[in-house]
Design goal:
- The complex is a heterodimer of chains A (296) and B (194).
- Chain A is an alpha/beta fold.
- Chain A is built from 13 helices and 9 strands.
- Chain A has helices at residues 11-21, 32-40, 53-59, 68-77, 91-99, 136-144, 162-180, 186-193, 197-206, 222-230, 240-243, 248-260, 265-272; strands at residues 7-8, 25-29, 45-48, 82-87, 104-108, 129-133, 149-152, 213-215, 236-238.
- Chain A has an 8-stranded parallel beta sheet with strand order 8-7-6-5-4-3-2-9.
- Classes of the chains: A alpha/beta (296), B alpha/beta (194).
- At the A-B interface, strand 1, helix 1 and helix 12 of A face helix 1, helix 2 and strand 7 of B.
Chain lengths: 296, 194
């Protein structure tokens, strides 16, 4: 079979990588040393970024795509997939990340949005995209734009899982509502969700998103990971939760174990024991900026 | 027939669904005791470093090694192929494998994600089968006792993508991601005698 008869960038291969990450932990890392710790602990991928969300929150200012040099250093350090973030709507940053050969682009609300109306046309890329969502309409709009993986947004950089739970429960409840609707109700439901009708029909029929659904934003303990997986997330993104904890290496190992054995409370109890302090965290009500409100 | 699917990480669900479609009963394999009464085991796609790590921490590494040594049929796809290979190139310095299949594989030998591809393969005895390659490992060398059931030329010569050595099977692509169940059927039908 000659190479001319093979094709890259199809939905199947883009989604396929997300399928391979299921049941795993994707860790935010800011340098090659952290990337190595993540890989050693059993992470399925790393997210290369200059500052973890809690530092972005603390420092303020405009948060942008990372320096390509730091992404390349991390690519050279680990054998697992390397993801990187582009600003919402910043397709030029995404083009750069694709040129750098990153394995997944996160069009992320953690960075400062570059376009207040439009997200990136993700169909135009060979590299797959993950996008955040707080509800089903938002998830299906992103999938309509070509996202191959959805993560519930949660509230990044807080160490507080409450928003992640809210978003997962919202998406699940809205999917159940579609499943119980009759075919003539789906038009109005699609309008209310602001979501493409064919995708609404697909969810009504299958009961799940057309792409894998992971969870992000506020996961900072093994118990948090177990919680969101039991709520239907298929994998977890952990940002500040690992490298802002007292003992990042142990925390990384523990969250990986808890993700694999999320229904086995004995295992989760064992890995939670004597872990040291989790990241300090923040009460959502005290936040000046809600990152989850970026994007629509 | 009960077939174990290593369920530590990866696309376990797709393999399980394919087995069910073929009338076999998939068993989620997470601990040593789950090995009881299995006719065969599938090692799914996923991240080989993560799965290797979790095999060690779950205590499953040694019991599974013993079963494979004593002839329990096993089929590895992508990451699963890496785990079965005699030699892993471009892996982590401490990457271990079961060395049950006399092949040397290069991790991500077909490139990173943007190079991931779909093609049509010609599988011995089956004809055309869809081949989905995702950050796929490349079988760069293989021993004489390894039977090549399909190969693929990605512009640098033909390399095996589906191989068998006795009761150990490996493939570089993901038959579980398509609705074509025939590759799994080859493996499952070989279990019938056990």
């Amino acid at each position: 079979m000659s190479p001319e008869t093979s094709s890259t960038g199809s939905q199947l291969v883009k989604r396929g990588l997300a399928d391979m990450l299921r049941g795993g932990v994707i860790m935010d890392v800011v340098n090659p040393e952290q990337a190595k710790i993540a890989e050693d602990a059993g992470a399925v991928a790393v997210m290369a970024l200059e500052r973890v969300p809690s530092d972005i929150r603390r420092d303020g200012g405009v948060a942008r795509m990372s320096d390509p040099q730091m992404i390349q250093e991390i690519q050279a350090t680990v054998t697992i997939p390397v993801m990187a973030k582009a600003r919402i709507g910043h397709f030029a940053e995404a083009q750069i990340l694709q040129a750098l050969n990153v394995d997944y682009i996160d069009e992320s609300e953690v960075l400062t949005p570059a376009d207040e109306e439009n997200h990136i046309d993700k169909w135009a890329f060979t590299v797959p995209f993950v996008c955040g969502a707080t509800n089903l309409g938002e998830a299906l709009r992103r999938i309509g734009e070509g996202a191959c993986l959805i993560r519930s947004k949660g509230e990044a950089g807080t160490g507080n899982v409450v928003e992640a739970v809210r978003h997962l429960r919202t998406i699940n409840a809205q999917m159940r509502r579609l499943q119980s609707a009759d075919s003539s109700e789906l038009f109005a439901l699609a309008k209310d969700l602001g979501a493409p009708l064919p995708l609404v029909r697909e969810v009504a029929e299958t009961g799940h998103l057309p792409v894998p659904m992971f969870c992000a934003g506020g996961i900072s303990t093994p118990a948090d990971a177990s919680l969101v997986l039991q709520l239907g997330a298929e994998a977890v993104f952990v940002g500040s939760g690992i490298f802002k904890s007292e003992d990042p290496t142990r925390m990384a190992h523990a969250i990986v174990e808890a993700t694999t054995h999320f229904r086995d409370a004995d295992v989760v109890a064992k890995v939670s024991t004597g872990l040291g302090a989790a990241m300090r965290g923040a009460e959502t009500a005290t936040l000046e900026q809600r990152l989850a409100e970026r994007g629509w | 027939m009960r077939v174990g699917v290593l369920a530590l990480q990866g696309d376990v669900r797709e393999h399980s669904a394919t087995l069910r479609a073929l009338g076999a009963e998939p068993v989620a394999l997470r601990r040593g005791e789950h090995l009881e009464g299995l006719s065969g085991v599938i090692l799914p796609g996923g991240e080989s470093t993560a799965i290797a790590h979790l095999l060690a921490t779950s205590g499953l590494r040694e019991p599974l090694a013993k079963e494979i040594e004593s002839g329990l049929p096993v089929f590895g796809t992508c990451a699963g192929l890496i785990l079965l290979s005699r030699q892993v190139l471009d892996g982590r310095a401490d990457q271990w494998s079961y060395a049950a299949l006399d092949v040397a594989v290069r991790r991500n030998g077909y490139g990173r994600q943007v190079a991931s591809f779909e093609t049509t393969l010609d599988v011995e005895g089956l004809g055309e089968v869809p081949g989905v390659f995702i950050r796929a490992p490349k079988i760069e060398s293989w021993g004489e006792s390894v039977e090549v059931l399909a190969d693929h030329d990605h512009g640098d010569g033909a390399f095996p993508v589906l191989v068998r050595q006795g009761s150990v099977w490996g493939c570089a692509f993901h038959p579980e991601l398509t609705s074509d169940t025939r590759v799994h059927e080859l493996f499952v039908s070989s279990l019938a005698d056990r």
